[in-house]
Amino acid sequence: MALLLLFWLVPAFIVSAVAVALLGFFLGPLFPAAVMATTTLLPKELHIGAIGFAAACGGAGSAFFPFAVGAIAQAHGVQVLPPIVPA
Fold first, then answer.
1. Rounded distance, CA 70 to CA 58, Å?
2. Which long-range contacts (CB under 8 A, 24 or more apart) does 5-11 make?
3. What is the mean pLDDT of each run of 10 residues along the chain (87 residues)?
4. Do 86 and 22 touch, CB atoms closer than 8 A?
5. CA distance 23 to 7
6. What is the pLDDT of residue 52?
7. What was the pLDDT predicted at 83?
8. What is the reported pLDDT for 5?
9. Minimal CB count within 10 Å: which of 5, 16, 46, 69?
């Protein structure tokens, strides 16, 4: 949360670039951690399906999200992009 506020509130490019890099660094281990949590919480026969479903949802999101952001930016202008870029 602090990195998002830093990205939004400090108008310097270098600060924004470092904030986004650190945000990616700290969010990077999230998917492997979720996979490990899934394997410990679910029964063994559901591991492949659950992890496959999570990966498919991630792929679908990465296909849909740029389209949605572009449509929003086209409708409301590019000023909507700064809050979306770190996401």
1. 19
2. 7/82, 7/85, 7/86, 8/82, 8/83
3. 75 82 87 91 93 92 91 87 72
4. no
5. 10
6. 93
7. 74
8. 76
9. 5
* Residue entry with tokens 């990077």: 28
The model's pTM: 0.66
Q: Do the beta carbons of residue 16 and residue 24 sit within 8 Å?
A: no
How far are the Cα atoms of 36, 48, 60, 63 from residue 56, in angstroms, in the given order?
17, 12, 6, 11
The predicted structure's pLDDT at residue 86: 67
**Local structure of 12: helix, strand or coil:** coil
In the chain, DSSP finds a helix count (H) and a strand count (E) of 5, 0
